[in-house]
Amino acid sequence: MITRRFLIVAAAVVAFVPPVTTRAADNGAAATVRTFYDTLMQAMKGGQQLGFAGRRDLLAPAVTRAFDLPLMTRITVGPQWANLTADEQQKLVRAFSDYSVATYANRFDDYSGEKFDVDPKATPSTGSDMIVHSKLVQSNGEPVELDYLMRPTGGIWKIVDIYLSGTISQLAAQRSEFTSVLRKGGVAALIQSLRDKVAQLAS
User: Reduced to 3 states, what is the DSSP secondary structure of residue 3?
Assistant: First the structure.
């Protein structure tokens, strides 16, 4: 039999229990970024020994797990995405994914004492999105702020955009170039442009 006293005690217990959903979101979103940083640090420390190809092979699975690359491709392309065929969309996602991996393999090619700091508490954004705040602390002690817009995809928190210094959207910066190439030369031109960028990063 449920008594009045039981209900009062139960209510008091619930009042002091932190919201599980929010706490889980904080931990899961931040964990995605931390795990990605762990692999990025391996690539940096491997540096020249791994070479570009080795860093690319190391980072490819980590980038695929951490980033929602199909969504990022669609956002970067913008409204023109709806006019593409399924085959064109698939090829474009692949080209964008290769470019994303190559960019990390190129830029994080050595280690000189840098470290990554990730705030374990994510900040709520619009809808179910969260923002994870992090810093790349350079060898001279100067921090570079890197914030990640996270979205739950299939039960996993994934990165959908990166903000440099908390304000500059990576996807917004890329969209102008992408849409311009797509408008002038079509999907084939954009895919070739991404492939050319990969070749330049690998050289």
Answer: coil
